[in-house]
Amino acid sequence: MSPTPSQIWNQRYARQELVRQDDWLLPWRERLQTLPRPRSALDLGCGDGFETARLADWGFAVTATDIAEQALARSRERTPAAQHLRADARAMPMLADASFDLVIAHLSLHYFDRAGTLAAFGEVARLLRPGALLLACVNAEDDLNYGAPAGAAQSWELSLVDGVPKQFFGEAKLREALGSGRYEIESLSKRSTPRYGAPKSLWELAARRV
Prior knowledge:
Low-confidence stretches: none
Structural class: alpha/beta
Largest sheet: 7 strands, mixed
Mean pLDDT: 94
Strand order of the largest sheet: 3-2-1-4-5-9-8
Shape: globular
Number of strands: 9
């Protein structure tokens, strides 16, 4: 039997060093500091917890989720004051409606088929207060160094990359995932970032909950 995605990630976190990730949130600091206190944030797919620690330093009460216990353990060690929960982005019933001023998802929303992707973005919308912000990065359709197949901009078929199913987004697919009437897109741009020794192509988005 093949290992589940959570088992694969647990194995990876168990053997890899703690890393300092792409500091993609830094340009948003000034904007986030304008939010009234108290400020609550959800780090969806927290991984090593770099962003969780960053948000805690900026005065947010942070809830961090991941499917891998090893990731949660690493993040908890970095930021023990944050709440840490094992959760799947597609359904988080343990979290109340409209309970966050900010949700961040750094490379954690591109592991699902079309139905799962729509469910995850819908669940984020449920958790955001009106006017609250989603900041996210996802695989781009031309992320060739990390497994993007031909036709990824249109197809919702998942690609198996190092044992893990992955989704790659074109702009139209990403707009479909956000859904009609749930979000107002503030910015949507493609960029490249160094990761694991080769450039990675991704979409970065900021969308406000309507």
